[in-house]
Amino acid sequence: MKNRKLSITLFLLLALGACNLPNPNGAIDQQAVGTMTSLTLTAFSAGRASLTPAFTETVTPTPTVTATFSVPMLNFDGATNCRGGPGTEYDVLVVMKDGQKAEILARSPSGNYWVIDSPNGKGPCWVAGDFARAEGSHQTLPIATVPPVPTAKPPVGPTWKNYNYSCEFAAGGSTATVSLAWSDKSSNENGYNVYRNNELVTSLGADTTSYTDVAFVGAGQSLSYYIEAYNNAAAVPGPVISISCN
């Protein structure tokens, strides 16, 4: 670069010197001076252009991320109640079968229940998350609005299926062993109460359908029994039976 500048400088000096040189006729050759000046400026511009570095900017394209989506589904590993809301206080709308699948529509605010599209056409229903496996893009599901808790309905009273008893005679009477069996007619009972002679003998859990009682029966006396289905709304008794060891 230094050599190029030196050459241009010398050329300019020569051009200027030429301006003072007389021609054979004793006058300055203005045309020669103009030509040399023009050539000098051209060479100087070319030198500057060659000294200017060229920069090329490389633009790296931003990668495009495409999200993948799969329909969220619920898989049932056993028979599972699907209710009208997130809890046992809601009615059972449909029982999902083992191996059945259903599309998930939403999730509960607590995250413990899924709202699915009921396969029997009764609309959405709620399933406890402990009884099914979720798959697909369920992380982006909306939060469902919990429906109002329905007013509790009284259970349906039980009916007798069968009963039998045996007696062992004792002083002043007998010891009776009474086997009781009844039909569970209700789907919303909290449990059953067993009454003997209008006194509560025991309380049993929901879906219980049998009980065996042992009681003393005085000579000439009898025992009466009835079963009562109960929940938070009411207690509904079934029919009364009586036995005697006479």
Descriptive notes:
- With 246 residues, the chain is α+β, with helices and mostly antiparallel strands.
- Helices cover 17% and strands 39% of the residues.
- Strands 6-5-4-1-7 form a 5-stranded antiparallel β-sheet, with no helix packed on it. Strands 10, 11, 13, 14 and 15 form a 5-stranded antiparallel β-sheet that branches.
- Strand 8 and strand 9 (173-183) form a beta hairpin.
How does the major sheet shape up?
5 strands, antiparallel
- Count the strands? 15
Uncertain runs? 10-16, 18-24
Distance separating the two termini: 136 Å
Mean pLDDT, as a whole number?
A: 81
What is the overall number of helices?
Answer: 2
Helix content: 10-25%
Walk across the major sheet and give the strand order: 6-5-4-1-7
Compile the SSE list and pairings:
Layout: H1 2-20, H2 30-51, E1 73-76, E2 80-83, E3 92-96, E4 101-107, E5 113-117, E6 124-128, E7 132-135, E8 159-170, E9 173-183, E10 191-196, E11 199-205, E12 210-218, E13 222-230, E14 235-237, E15 241-244
Antiparallel strand pairs: 1-4, 1-7, 2-3, 4-5, 5-6, 8-9, 9-12, 10-11, 10-13, 13-14, 13-15
Summarize the structure.
By secondary structure, the chain is an alpha+beta fold. The protein has helices at 2-20, 30-51; strands at 73-76, 80-83, 92-96, 101-107, 113-117, 124-128, 132-135, 159-170, 173-183, 191-196, 199-205, 210-218, 222-230, 235-237, 241-244. It has two helices and 15 strands.
What attributes characterize this protein structure?
2 helices; 17% helix; 5-stranded antiparallel β-sheet; alpha+beta; 246 residues
